[in-house]
């Protein structure tokens, strides 16, 4: 029996993983196992019933992509088997890994007579090694970035090469991908540090610590071309994906097509991508990534020999099911289409929803259990690819992606509007997530105008992401909504807890005076109610609020001064504190009666912790190195320790010059967010 396997588990565990996978191939029952159902898709390819492909496919993968593959297999009448790691035995976690691009994995499968749905081992090896792939690209007359084409062996050699190329330079893992093992260096010291971290991350993520160095193209766009090739020499380019919105060299928001490319540049990039695919006799779906400068010069970056995370937006604008095409190619069928058949129909946008704190370096990992989870699938032309459900755990062992949220429209404006609504309607409780950042990105004037680059986030938020900055009208909307929610809760409590025991006509209060606090600001408000409409007065302005104020629902659809808004109430407490998600950002608002506000002024304030003398872990992870001991004197900016989370290493430094008082961690220990690591005097 011939089976398909597409893998994405940790590369360093290939030997033990292979044994379990091959055992599963031989002895697994003919049934499909998947812990969460892939959601509604946006593509229209119809399977050809007469085409015989495979009876059963073993999916060596996890999370959302495993569920995505299973969906197409079911459509094609193919039975599926899923496997899981020990960590996943009792819960589902989203994420991608690197077995799909591991040549040893593909070789072992071939030796066992198992079909691998993907390119052959030659193409995986050639394109998986960044040094070899660059040489092949040059030979295939594909534009490449200037740089050193060999392996960099030491930090000092890296400095010498960087000086010869000219700063800035990019230090990259030869076997890398997904932003792992990549550092930008602007001087000799950053090159030494980048060499150390990149080699460590590369060894941890790929089992291969080889590095290369090339010229860093400042302020570029990251645009990739989707290719599809069969075993008969046919190859197509399926248009581009704009992937410039990134943090730590990892994509956050993608769209197809790009606002930047004209038809001539699009065709040139597509043709070079196909040239490269043919040069390595590629057969399957793959992606050729380019950096594009402001003058539309483009340079080969790398080729990913697998299904990309962002493949759904290509499916939306072309109507092709890429998983189905991969299965057909693996079985030996020719491509169904020619280049002239490939359309650009409409616009698609994808947001990667992560369990991350966007206020820390645009997204440091968060862990926890999804106590409440509701995808916005009731909205039109919204697709959610996920592998989790309410109750799932997000752990430190895998990439923290919760889902891929995709919207589609006839125009870019329509797709963006749908994405804004989808983000507002997405309910995620139990973990910190990056929806506040995603919503700010897609509504920012620079993004809306298409004026973007890979430096978008640090340029737009030079001091870090701070959430939505409220203007006067928006602030009044928020305060009015919180006050109305408070009154709604008070009225409900009066009905539930009322003491009237004889029939009478209740006299309901219709006017209130309250004090609303947001941060350090305090605002007196007056509220009146007429029917279902609340009128809130503050600072001489009036705000009218009405809508479905169901306190049991996570979503609060309100109409505020004639504008429809979707708010979320995350919590309310007896002290009047209400946490609302408004315009994507969480705001903590306190609503008090006038008397309570007066009495509250006499309460002592909590003294804030002196964070300059302590170092706490900004994320859950593993301590890789501790560079100090008690009694050492550290300078401002000096490295104190290194924390690894989701295969990314993060150097934690001193914020001032001081003597080390005590060290509370050691290499190999697992730490949680906020755990005390080091104390300074």
TrEMBL record:
SMART domains reported in the protein's UniProt record: Biotin_carb_C
InterPro entries xrefs: ATP-grasp (IPR011761), ATP_grasp_subdomain_1 (IPR013815), BC-like_N (IPR005481), Biotin_BS (IPR001882), Biotin_carboxylase_complex (IPR050856), Biotin_carboxylation_dom (IPR011764), Biotin_COase_C (IPR005482), Biotin_lipoyl (IPR000089)
Reaction equations catalysed: propanoyl-CoA + hydrogencarbonate + ATP = (S)-methylmalonyl-CoA + ADP + phosphate + H(+); butanoyl-CoA + hydrogencarbonate + ATP = (2S)-ethylmalonyl-CoA + ADP + phosphate + H(+)
GO BP of this protein: lipid catabolic process
Molecular function via GO: ATP binding; metal ion binding; propionyl-CoA carboxylase activity
SUPFAM superfamilies according to UniProt: Glutathione synthetase ATP-binding domain-like, PreATP-grasp domain, Rudiment single hybrid motif, Single hybrid motif
Ranges where the Biotin carboxylation domain occurs: 53-462
PROSITE patterns given in the database record: ATP_GRASP (PS50975), BC (PS50979), BIOTIN (PS00188), BIOTINYL_LIPOYL (PS50968), CPSASE_1 (PS00866), CPSASE_2 (PS00867)
Gene3D superfamilies: 2.40.50.100, 3.30.700.30, 3.40.50.20, ATP-grasp fold, A domain (3.30.1490.20), ATP-grasp fold, B domain (3.30.470.20)
Record-given protein name: Propionyl-CoA carboxylase alpha chain, mitochondrial
Organism the protein comes from: Oreochromis aureus
EC number: 6.4.1.3
